[in-house]
Write a structure and sequence with these properties.
four-stranded mixed β-sheet; alpha+beta; single chain
Length: 121
């Protein structure tokens, strides 16, 4: 597990970009889930990039995708894949944490309230 700043530094250090306008269905995106820590809480992020364009010798700009108040879900993952198809590396951050309940509106209110009360999260 890595701290948030260490993880973002690692993620942004080795990606390249050589163009835009790649068809999302044929661009060969690489996607993966990654655990990281924030304030001793384990979070899971989603990384998407075009492996043929983002390499250790040709860097891609990184876009950080922040979830809506209902937690990270398919919407944030789809946005990350969209950005990756345009030549960016995209990391969708789960800012609530893996063990935070996110199934109901009451869960969303509790999670977002906790986050609002602690700016360091």
């Amino acid at each position: 597990m890595k701290s948030t700043s260490a993880w973002l530094a690692l993620v942004s250090s080795g990606f390249v970009w050589t163009g835009r306008g790649v068809d999302l269905n044929t661009c060969g995106l690489s996607t993966s889930l990654h655990n990281y820590t924030c304030e001793s809480q384990t979070c899971e992020g989603y990384l998407a990039y075009n492996a043929s364009r983002c390499t250790s010798t040709a860097k891609c700009p990184l876009v950080l995708v922040i979830q809506d108040w209902n937690g990270m879900n398919d919407y944030e993952k789809e946005r990350s894949r969209m950005l990756a198809s345009w030549g960016y590396a995209a990391f969708a951050a789960d800012i609530y944490g893996i063990d935070t309940p996110k199934a109901t509106m009451q869960d969303w209110v509790a999670a977002s309230s906790t986050h609002r009360q602690n700016a360091s999260l």
